[in-house]
Amino acid sequence: MISFSSVQPSPAQNPTATAAASTATRTSLLPHHYHSNKLSFIPPPFLQPADLSRRHYHHHRIRAIDAAQPYDYEAQLINRFTQSTKLKIAIIGFGNFGQFLAKAFIRQGHTVFAHSRSDYSSIAQSLGAAFFFDTHDLCEQHPDVILLCTSIISTESVLKSLPIQRLRRNTLFVDVLSVKEFPKNIFLQFLPAHFDILCTHPMFGPESGKNSWQNLAFVFDKVRIGNEENRLTRVETFLDIFKKEGCRMVEMTCAEHDKYAAGSQFITHTMGRILEKLQLDSTPINTKGYETLLNLVENTSSDSFDLYYGLFMYNKNAMEQLERLDLAFESLKKELFGHLHEVLRKQLFGKSEEIPRLVLAKLPKNGTPLLPASKSETVVNNNS
Ligand code: NAP
């Protein structure tokens, strides 16, 4: 097991990661009453304002300026330090999407700690994040935010495996899963009441958001946020990351999200995966519409099957959408074949012509079930 200190780059190699590491180490050296009794906390000389939660800073500064200040002086002071606050964000699950998010966090000056089942230490180092093989070591750095970015299907076991007793008592837990009611429920089930919970879903990925996040939707639900100022500020600071990137911020409940997402995102992924199975090729005469389909296949196939399976398994509305899709396809075929009148069929195929068995099989005949048939199979039509 390699600890955090053994993977730290030298200052020359990676100043960001080193700064992150030293901030983390300093914070982990704080006395116990830092966590349990905020009023008795005295900031050590090495702790800079950016290291402090706004509440701690607020207590010590505001009490010193009680007298004769302009009306909004305190508010300005709070804002000044709130706006400059940088978060320590621990990304659990440093795969495709975790790394994608880390780049934006680091670009905006936040400190990123990463942990994953696989060894991403060199990728983390190249991005300016500190990689932890051991979640105990990571939690002891007291991140402000634990961001769950694992596959939907592994989330519950990953969450249960975290040594949350090593975290600060009101740490903010965030998830970015593509389904929302499921993580909300497991957070509420497994996290003690003193942890804050924010459920989010960036409605874009490394492919669709590779150039910019401008106007891309970011869904969030503040499931449980303590009402102290520093906790309210911390959640806003986290949301600000996405606002600053230009995202369209959409606040809605997890249940609403799952309803919309089943009818939009799950359908999109399903269509992409169906088309992928057709192995569509680009042609010299591609239409714009066809190009769109090829792009859809490319977008959806770059996501893992785990992700797609998670959209199905962990969104209770997905099954209904799958059935609707099935019905829609059947109804469309019936509509097409219903127009294929008997006379027209005779005109088209003649009396003794060979009719592709597939076509015959699919024609609605007194409600008989539709038969599967291979594309190449043909049958001599003696009936028409
Ligand atoms: P994913 O296949 O959904 O998840 C991959 C991540 O899950 C990796 O970090 C992987 O760790 C981890 N993981 C998988 N199985 C695990 C297990 N049994 N135990 C521990 N960790 C496990 O692909 P993704 O695209 O990176 O998505 C991550 C999360 O972001 C998902 O919840 C997804 O719904 C959400 N999301 C993705 C997108 C997107 O466009 N990709 C957009 C919005 C939200 P290792 O790599 O270390 O094995």
TrEMBL record:
<dbReference type="InterPro" id="IPR012070">
    <property type="entry name" value="Arogenate_DH_2"/>
</dbReference>
<dbReference type="Pfam" id="PF26213">
    <property type="entry name" value="TYRAAT1_C"/>
</dbReference>
<dbReference type="GO" id="GO:0008977">
    <property type="term" value="F:prephenate dehydrogenase (NAD+) activity"/>
</dbReference>
<dbReference type="InterPro" id="IPR028939">
    <property type="entry name" value="P5C_Rdtase_cat_N"/>
</dbReference>
<feature type="domain" description="Prephenate/arogenate dehydrogenase">
    <location>
        <begin position="87"/>
        <end position="366"/>
    </location>
</feature>
<dbReference type="InterPro" id="IPR059064">
    <property type="entry name" value="TYRAAT2_C"/>
</dbReference>
<dbReference type="Pfam" id="PF03807">
    <property type="entry name" value="F420_oxidored"/>
</dbReference>
<keyword id="KW-0560">Oxidoreductase</keyword>
<dbReference type="InterPro" id="IPR008927">
    <property type="entry name" value="6-PGluconate_DH-like_C_sf"/>
</dbReference>
<dbReference type="InterPro" id="IPR045011">
    <property type="entry name" value="TYRAAT1/2"/>
</dbReference>
<dbReference type="InterPro" id="IPR003099">
    <property type="entry name" value="Prephen_DH"/>
</dbReference>
<dbReference type="InterPro" id="IPR036291">
    <property type="entry name" value="NAD(P)-bd_dom_sf"/>
</dbReference>
<feature type="region of interest" description="Disordered">
    <location>
        <begin position="1"/>
        <end position="23"/>
    </location>
</feature>
<feature type="compositionally biased region" description="Polar residues">
    <location>
        <begin position="1"/>
        <end position="15"/>
    </location>
</feature>
<protein>
    <submittedName>
        <fullName>Arogenate dehydrogenase 2</fullName>
    </submittedName>
</protein>
